[in-house]
Design brief:
Blueprint lengths: L1 H15 L5 H31 L12 H34 L8 H45 L2 H6 L3 H7 L6 H24 L9
Helix pairs in contact: 2-3, 3-4, 3-7, 4-7
Length: 208
């Protein structure tokens, strides 16, 4: 229902404005369909990539501190890439939802359209941020717990005499200071809508 509402608010407004020919509308529709398809596929791929960092080895004894470091690094790379894609999508949605206001010359109605645009982008921004938190948080906590277990082994204690320092240096500590970059990355989709609206120039009705 929400997808149909967004589609009707944007493409159908474009279609009924009478300012664009059918060939242009067909190209716009094709681009929208492609982006919507990517919006469905990309999150699935991102979740699978995050889950691959948690795949258990064939033998638990083969799990080494270096392996866990690589897994944590891969998880953070997936988080960064996923956040960048979601921010791009939120900014695109904000611009896509704001343009119908250019067809309105009444200030009050125009402000209402812009308000709806901001509300929708805030909803999807919050949803995207929650998705990143629920993906990264449990996965990173599990890797940190496994790292502590591995460091308790006698063989690891010989190679790593100061396990707490090693955990901190390799990103396995869950303090606010240590996780601040990841917190910022996860909050980026939520902040993208308001920041995008602030940075965009005021809407001017077409023909003025």
């Amino acid at each position: 229902i929400l997808y149909r509402a967004v589609f009707g608010f944007t493409f159908l407004t474009l279609q009924t404005s009478g300012r664009f020919d059918q060939a242009f509308l067909d190209r716009v529709h094709a681009i929208i369909s492609l982006m919507n398809g990517l919006a469905v596929i990309v999150p699935v791929i991102a979740v699978l990539a995050a889950c691959s960092a948690l795949a258990p080895p064939e033998d638990e004894d083969d799990l080494t501190p270096d392996d866990l470091t690589a897994r944590m690094r891969n998880l953070k790379e997936v988080l960064n890439a996923g956040s960048a894609l979601l921010v791009t999508g939120i900014l695109h949605m904000d611009a896509w939802l704001r343009w119908p206001a250019a067809l309105i010359d009444q200030k009050g109605i125009q402000d209402g359209v812009l308000g709806v645009s901001l509300a929708i982008t805030l909803f999807w921004g919050a949803t995207s941020t929650l998705m990143l938190i629920t993906t990264y948080g449990p996965a990173a906590a599990w890797l940190a717990a496994r790292a502590r277990d591995v460091l308790r082994r006698k063989t690891s204690q010989v190679l790593i005499p100061h396990p707490e320092q090693w955990l901190k240096e390799h990103g396995f500590y869950f303090t606010l200071g240590e996780q601040l970059p990841q917190i910022g990355v996860m909050l980026a989709p939520l902040l993208a809508g308001p920041l995008g609206s602030m940075l965009m120039a005021p809407v001017t009705p077409l023909g003025q």
